[in-house]
Structure formats: structure tokens, C-alpha cells
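FYI - complex with ribulose-5-phosphate, inputs then prediction.
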Amino acid sequence: MVNPGKEAAATAALSYVEDNMYVGLGTGSTAKIFIEKLAQRVKDENLTITCAATSIFSAELAASLGLKVVPLDDVDELDINVDGADEVDPQLNGIKGGGAALFYEKIVAKTAKKNIWIVDPSKQSEQLGSFKLPIEVLPFGSKHVFNYLKHDLNLDPTFRLQADGSLLTTDSDNYIIDVDVAKIDNLYELADELIRHVGILEHGLFMDICDILIVGDEPAQIIERQN
Ligand code: 5RP
């Protein structure tokens, strides 16, 4: 069933796309709607758009719809990157990785001049932490990383599983550990702590990355990050 909020946000993001742009494609159900609409617009207006994607799923979807998709390393810089989010606060900091794509999502985001997040109103929150924070860890030694998250940081970790009960693996063959950050006051400090720990590849705290948040309301609400 179509979520009108996601649909409205994805539609509004289309207006940021201009001919000859390099566009980052996010991952998730809202990003999927954007990719479908972008492909239609590129066809209708005969635009020249080059895309880099944040997951194998989004890359394959975009290519199947006729969009030109290239590896991220073939691109110097993306003009815009359009992605969803799991939770976003009033400063436009967010938690991402619900779709297990956080590592690709962050490196694509860092390659973009402008990051646009498209969300339905349910993703907005006064303080981050209602969504569990995903952390991508290398499989080797992951039990030790789990124990560090549990005993040293007290973050109530759980390995993310697939429907059949096996460990979920990401597009780069790593594991996801979800942790509870609801009681953490300083998420910048936590982000620094996590990224310095051996075995952690990346975490889903996206601080100071989103430039424009589009909330799919009637009409869509556009919020720009204040620096
Ligand atoms: C994937 C993500 C997605 O952007 C996030 O999960 C939002 O997904 P959706 O648009 O389906 O609500 O971070 O890793």
C-alpha cells in the first residue's frame, strides 16, 4: 500500500534534480519511490542523469528502470544525494540503517554536495533514540564487539537476524548489531567512541550530514539545516 507521506516527500525531492546532474540514490521504501519517479522524469524530459547507488537493491532497481548507474568510484562528486531516514531530529541529525545499508549510505552521502532526506512525518522526533541504532561490524571477532557494546557501553545490543533466524549480512558481507541509544545524552561523543573501536566498520548516526529535510505532509514541508 502506498504511504502518502513517503510518496509526497519523494515527489517533492524531484524538483531538486536538474539536467546533467550526478545523483546519489538512497535505500529503503521512500528512496525506492524516488528512484521510480526519477526514472520516469528522466524518460519524459530526456534528461542526462548519472546515478550512484547506496545498495545493490537500489542500483539494480534504477538500472532496470533505465537510469544510468555507475560505481561510486567513477564519480568525483555527486550534486545531490536523496535518501530516506529512520529517525530525524530538529537539527536534522538522524539514525539510518534500518535497511542495513548504512555504510554505503554514509560514504555516498559524504560524496555529495547536498544531502536531501525524504521522510514521512512519523520519522520526526525531538530526541534521537526511539529507533535502535544500527552498527555495521566485521564478522571476524564480532562477538567481542558485541560484548563491548553490551558490557562497556551498556547499549543492550542484538545481532540483526533474517526471517529464517540466520545472521543478516550487508551488501559488503558484514553483520549488523542494533543498539539502544535512548538514554545517551551526547550522541556526538558516542559516534566518536564507536568509530574508534576496532571491528566496527560504521554506525548509523548521521550527524551534520542532512542539508535539506523533506517531510511528506500536505503540502510537503522543506526544512533546511541551520549551520
Ligand atoms: C536503509 C535506510 C533507510 O533510508 C531507512 O531505513 C528509511 O527507510 P524507509 O524509507 O523504508 O522508511 O537507512 O538503510
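Residues 26-31, 83-86, 96-102, 105 surround ribulose-5-phosphate (CB under 6 Å). The chain has two domains: 4-125+207-224, 133-201.
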